[in-house]
Amino acid sequence: MLRAAIYARFSTNLQSDRSIDDQFTLCRFFADQRGYSVVQIYSDAAKSGASIFDRDGLRQMLKDAEAGAYDVLIVEAFDRLSRDQADMHSIFRHLTFNKVNVLSVNDGSGDTINVTLRGLMSQLYREDNAHKVRRGLTGRIQDGLSAGGRSYGYRADPLRTGVLVIDEEQAAVVRRIFEAFKAGKSPRAIARELNEAGVPAPKSKHWTASTLLGSASRHNGILHNPLYIGERIWNRQHFLKHPATGRRVSRPNPPEDWKRAQVPELRIISDELWAHAASHRRPGRPFKEARMMRRPQHPLSGLIYCGACGAPMHLSGKDRSGKARLRCSAIDSRAACKSQKTFFLDEVHALLFPRLVAQLGQSEEMQLTAQSWYDQRLEDVAVDLARREEIKVALQSVDQKHMNIMDKAALGIIPDDILLPYIERIRTERDQLLGELVKLATEPEVPVIQHDVTADLITFLAAGVSELTSADRRLSLLRKVIRAIVVHYVGTVSRKFKLEVLLDLAALTDPNATATAAEPLSKHLSAKDVIEFRFSI
């Protein structure tokens, strides 16, 4: 008796969990009719079929298939597996590679043609639905209604669906922000005043300068929101699923695609206040978006965090001798850090670099990480080479099939209504093999553990980095290796502190590793690919 597994899924929270049970019931009946023994069931509730990410049931199903836990997979319809054509093929290839037959109650057997057609139809259905949703939302905008989302200063009308009304308490805060901005106060100073006054922030616990500034190109942030002068703008951006992570990524739309509607009943500020905010951050100084101000100020810029609150630390002036001070950014922008202490950047360098040299030079973890990466890359190279040979053999077989069918066609053995579809399938198979071979055409590069790069970095650190420029490749490598430096103050002495350093040693072995991005400290501390070591003065 063949062992069968069942997979069920429904898309949104608006659907009932009963949908999963109904799919299980239908698939069990299908299995009983064919004499299969159901040994595994998997489900993903309220998970979109547009991506295979964040679907624990699907991931476990594929993992068990690899372990040989079942012989047949049964689904109600192929779109339960995926509504993306590429993902559908990936799932199907994974299952067939592990000798699992895929059966659908509604769609039949999971052969190549059926899966291809159903995957294409599912993707077209999903894209068509997206177009219809956007069309419907455009109609709402033209009718003066909200298309979703709610800006600070407004609340939903409980009596009229899709209608926003002014929240007078929040509107007063909006006016206060614009008036303070016109008076010459910086966004950071305004955010600090609001935090000190205990004014609740829109989404997070504290007001920040970025809450007020947002992005001029996308018209978000309080100082850029045209709704405050009674103009609603929609379709400023669209969202895509990132193919590598499955996360939604926003992309700005060109201004000519924006949808505009006048809603004078939602005006909160005057045209005068808006005109000033549209052209100045402070009198005589234009807005600058955050992405234009990201050049590192010093070698460890963006990597040092406050141990008291977890916020990034930044330069805060110099003393009389010219030594640069570091201070928690939450003190200035959010008034949220209890620690008011500062310390000198050169003291961090003096404490960090000698110990970092010792760590890199003697780290057993680094050697193990390097060897593990090297072994994996060698295995990948071997797999690529073996696959190239498999494709060459498969191409010879396809060419032979083509010659055989053409010989039979010349003799009139095969009628045209059978011949043409068969030839088309052969050509499609050949094109797919050639496409894969083109991707593998370049000889795989045998990896090299970068001991020379590591040694260069150690020598460089031992000499100090005060004179480094951002173009120095060793500085780039240093910023890849260091995930975070957390400063913990000790006792009541202002200049006594200890450091907690998180290192990503994989960056020393993988030349394609990217530099650490500015992220919340919690993301660094939860990373699985880092090690930590502590020291203090």
TrEMBL record:
Read off the InterPro entries from this record: DNA_bind_recomb_sf, DNA_bind_recombinase_dom, Resolv_N, Resolvase-like_N_sf, SSR_resolvase, Zn_ribbon_recom_dom
Q: Taxonomically, which superkingdom? A: Bacteria
Q: Name one Pfam family in it.
A: Resolvase
The segment(s) forming the Resolvase/invertase-type recombinase catalytic domain are: 3-152
Residue ranges of the Recombinase domain? Answer: 151-286
Protein's name according to its UniProt entry: Recombinase family protein
- Organism of provenance: Pseudogemmobacter lacusdianii
